[in-house]
Amino acid sequence: MSAMNGFTTLIRAGLVSAAIALVAPPAIAQEIDHSRMQMPAQKPMPNPPAESIDHTAMDHTGKDHGMGAKPSAVAQAVDHSTMAGMMAAPDEPRTPIPALTDADRAAAFPVLAQPMEHASRVNRYVLFDQLEWQGANGGAQAWDAKGWIGTDMDRLWLRTEGEREDGRTESAFAEALYGRAISPWWDLLIGVRNDFRPGPERTWAAVGVQGLAPYKFDIEATAYIGESGRSHARIEAEYELLLSNRLILQPQLEAELYGESDRRRRLGAGLSSVELGVRLRYEVSREFAPYLGVVWSRKFGDSADFARDDGERVQDTRLVAGIRIWF
After folding, report:
1. Which domains does the chain have, with CATH numbers?
2. What phi and psi, each to the nearest 5 degrees, are found at residue 18?
3. Which residues of 64-85 are buried (b: 16+ CB within 10 A; e: fewer)?
4. pTM of the model
5. What is the pLDDT along the chain (327 residues), one digit of tens a residue?
């Protein structure tokens, strides 16, 4: 009887162990130490060359890879050969851009057929570029002024320049010229000039140009024809160098030439005289500016000979001080 009870107890213990093994296999699997397991050595499988694999011949749609289910109808309908085309960017944008028309081009680039229009009302301008005292013997006074009245295209120009010393006028002239704008920066001038001093008065027909040359040089170049075929040319150039908004350095060059000698006026043929001046002005306002400077002048050729015969200096250097006004 006791033997039977022991056998029954063993059977029950075996059934309990089998039930535990069936109910909790993951716990047992977690206790397995794979690091102590020794697998028999296997020979490496040779890799087939990449050229020998033909992926285009593989048909994955009908294979069962052990998942226990066949691929769905959607997966069977996928054509992998067309996936590259589906992933590529579309040839046309989602919102197509309309083609350009002649009306679009005309609106973007209108034809500028209208001519440039200028103000028609009359304006004026007066500039006393030099009203100065010169440090000569006993002092001398000099002036250089110009002005115009008219429109942007057509103007009447008045110019005058002269010098007084020891209470008498040594040189002076005045011009009246019609000016026509031939470009945005240049005027063509034609008119008359009258020389009051030195010597007897002379009247000239004048033609020339004035304007702003490249690099902002102010240029005046005028040719004159007088009585008995006399000829004369005058060139003036100046430049304004802004040292500050109000402090301005102004170099200036003048040169005069004559076609023939004029003994009565003590002027020789060829290059008669050259004057070079440098003036530094301070603009208290844009319309009013005092200045200081130095002027160097020299006579050449027959004009120098006439000066020597008259006991005058051929070359002279003077300090100058004056004001510049415009309105």
Report:
1. 123-326 (2.40.160.40)
2. -65, -40
3. eeeeeeebeeeeeeeeeeeeee
4. 0.63
5. 555 555 556 566 666 565 555 555 444 444 445 555 555 444 555 555 544 455 554 555 544 444 444 544 444 545 555 555 555 555 655 777 888 888 888 888 877 766 666 656 899 999 999 999 998 665 789 999 999 999 989 999 999 999 998 888 999 999 999 999 999 999 999 999 999 988 899 999 999 999 999 999 999 999 999 988 899 999 999 999 999 999 999 999 999 999 999 999 999 999 999 999 999 999 999 999 999 999 999 999 999 999 999 999 999 999 999 999 999
